[in-house]
Design a protein that fits this description.
By secondary structure, this protein is mainly beta. The chain is built from 1 helix and 9 strands.
């Protein structure tokens, strides 16, 4: 699945991963971020926490560990990470995700 041209024309975030690992496009408001992700390689995010996050899997697979439980989400599944909840994430190469972050400044927009 490829995002439509108008989404691909949106700005991207300066993430701690190179473009050959994760590609993204973002919509930012004063209240949060909506990020359209495409993972080109497997990614592991070690345990961390931040304000609230909600996401949906468009394609691929995400494994999320929090509160002593691990869940695997596939296409059509959603996940909700409450503010302050420590979690760990594994995303499979080829995954397409849409994530909404409560923090408008979670990541800076790439210049």
């Amino acid at each position: 699945m490829d995002y439509p041209e108008f989404i691909k024309a949106m700005p991207s975030l300066a993430l701690p991963f190179p473009d050959d690992v994760v590609q993204n496009h973002v919509v930012r408001s004063d209240d949060g971020l909506v990020v359209f992700f495409r993972f080109l390689q497997d990614v592991h995010l070690p345990p961390h926490s931040h304000l609230g996050q909600w996401g949906t899997v468009v394609e691929g697979e995400v494994k999320l560990a929090m509160n002593g439980e691990t869940h695997v989400s596939g296409p059509g599944d959603t996940y909700d990470i409450p503010a302050g909840t420590e979690h760990e994430v594994w995303v499979k190469a080829g995954s397409v995700l849409i994530d909404v972050f409560e923090e408008p400044d979670r990541y800076p927009i790439r210049a």
